[in-house]
Backbone:
């Protein structure tokens, strides 16, 4: 698979895609089993050898609004994990200022929160054997979910929150705790990673920043006045911040993660 860059055009400006870090070192060959941060979500910027392309099936359902390309790329990678990144091969993606493209409006559709997990992410992890590069891909996408839900931008549809939250828990069960803790994606916040680790059964998660305990997430209250740690209004634990987190912190009982995700280094 040859991978080219995507540059995004909107309102007269051209900006790099969030995954543009892959091209910092120029043209090079990559084995994704050893460089699992080489996430690939689209087919518009790739060339696949014909015999591999014909052996892989593109998803046919239309209820899950995105990640068809991701599924297809995953199937190719299972057959051949090698790729070549080519910075000078550029695809210009015109992002509509009106915000009404299929990708942009997907967040308003219930399929983004239900079928996307059932028919895309869970089968993707199954078909790839839960490979680290596949887990990194799913974690990259989950970062956008936490952002949309935490900002209150998800659709208000009766029953959707509980259904989606249960599926998120089921999906996170398939991810390794260490992959969650060390996820390199800046948009996957420390708060999101901490809640996922609580879902995984960790007793306590300490978020560190500037050499101090910034926040402490726990399955049961460690202090007298914690706030609820919730996803879409559904409580998964408790959280305290600042000095209160410092006082309650117990190193033997806590998983630690950094407030700022490490930047991918390929």
Residues:
């Amino acid at each position: 698979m040859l991978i080219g860059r995507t540059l995004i055009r909107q309102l007269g400006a051209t900006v790099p895609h969030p995954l543009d870090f892959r091209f910092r070192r120029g043209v090079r060959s990559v084995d994704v089993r050893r460089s699992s941060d080489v996430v690939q979500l689209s087919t518009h910027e790739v060339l696949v050898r014909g015999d591999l392309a014909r052996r892989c099936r593109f998803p046919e359902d239309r209820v899950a609004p995105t990640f068809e390309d991701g599924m297809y790329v995953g199937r190719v990678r299972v057959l051949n994990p090698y790729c070549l990144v080519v910075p000078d091969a550029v695809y210009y993606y015109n992002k509509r200022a009106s915000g009404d493209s299929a990708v942009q409006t997907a967040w308003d559709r219930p399929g983004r929160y239900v079928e996307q997990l059932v028919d895309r992410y869970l089968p993707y992890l199954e078909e790839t054997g839960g490979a680290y590069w596949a887990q990194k891909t799913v974690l990259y996408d989950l970062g956008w979910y936490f952002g949309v839900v935490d900002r209150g931008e998800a659709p208000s549809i009766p029953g959707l929150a509980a259904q989606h939250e249960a599926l998120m828990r089921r999906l996170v069960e398939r991810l390794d705790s260490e992959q969650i803790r060390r996820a390199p994606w800046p948009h996957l916040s420390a708060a999101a990673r901490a809640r996922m680790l609580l879902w995984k059964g960790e007793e306590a998660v300490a978020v560190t920043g500037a050499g101090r305990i910034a926040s402490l997430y726990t399955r049961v209250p460690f202090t007298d006045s914690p706030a609820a740690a919730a996803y879409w209004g559904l409580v998964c634990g408790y959280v305290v911040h600042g000095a209160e987190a410092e006082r309650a912190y117990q190193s033997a009982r806590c998983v630690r993660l950094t407030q700022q995700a490490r930047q991918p280094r390929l």
The mean pLDDT is 93. The two ends are 17 Å apart (CA to CA). The beta strands are 2-10, 13-16, 28-31, 46-47, 82-94, 204-209, 212-218, 227-231, 234-241, 255-258.
